[in-house]
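Hey, resending since the last one bounced:
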Amino acid sequence: MSALTANRSAGKEAEFVVAGQWQLIWRKFRKHRLAMFSGVVVSFIYLVVLIPGFFAPFTPEEYRANFTYAPPQPIRFVVRTEDGLRFAPFVYGYKVEIDYNAGRRNFVIDREVSYPVGLFVKGAPYSVLGLFESNIHLFGPVNAGDPLFLLGADRLGRDVLTRTIYGTQVSMTIGLIGVALSLFLGILLGGISGYYGGWIDNFIQRLIEFLRSLPSIPLWIGLAAAIPKDTPPMQVYFLITVILSVIGWTGLARVVRGKFMAIKTEDFVQAAKLDGCSTRRIIFRHMVPTFMSHIIAVVTLAIPGMILAETSLSFLGIGLRPPVISWGVLLQEAQNIRSISTAPWLFWPGVAVTVAVLALNFLGDGLRDAADPYA
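The structure tokens again:
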């Protein structure tokens, strides 16, 4: 029995020795439970980005003037009948009470009225990846026209949950696009700086120091305020992405420069030079892959910063503006005292920001630890 156990142990050790770098990274990453869970959360968020219409019960522009600032309707799952309890999800209706002292109307739960809620119900049509249209929603009211405000309604009677789901598209993709541009600039300029050295290195490093010496938020505010107010929403989206990317590449460039200076004298780089490889091929085919795992971790940790920057700019009113829907734009609704006192559910987009940023940070932390599988 001991010999069999020893053979199994030797086989496992041999398998571990011949495992490639990415296999080692994956094995170590799987041991990080929080990072694995965060990866599932991030994957689900980006699935919502692809098909928000399927996950949202309504369209983001649909409004009901009779339900302005309507409070959330919690779902009940069990109905009491003459035959006992029966599983049938529903929400109670509203009834309005006038508060003459405060001069406003209040919504209270009306337990005599209920609206059934179902899965995979038919509703407003939406486009799926721009390829075809569908009207099937993950959940929603069984009867078209019934109110369903799981996270409440805003000042125009629009569903906060639906608008938060649609805001995922802009807030999460602006982080991806911004980081992609920062990644390109960071690898290109950092690689050139570390590979060539000399006056090129001095010039790029002084540029990086200049950009890093500027306070980020005032710089963002100044650049974003320079965008004309009559600029179309899609152009504003593009310009905000460029603004965030122009400032966000400096940290990665410093890391890439240090790596390049450390490995540019290695034998495999010298062999590639003697073989007649071009500079671009040496950088992107031989040098960058040696620390690609580290770059992946840096990128994952940089996306939350982009998301927070966009949310901050839009919340301050100098970033994205309606009719564009993002989490920062939605949080503009929660800037006045009435929202804080009477409609606290308008802060739900802020909860979405918190969940997305924490999930991305935990995922990046796990990738950073797994990037060095021998540690």
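The mean pLDDT is 83.

Sorry for the duplicate.
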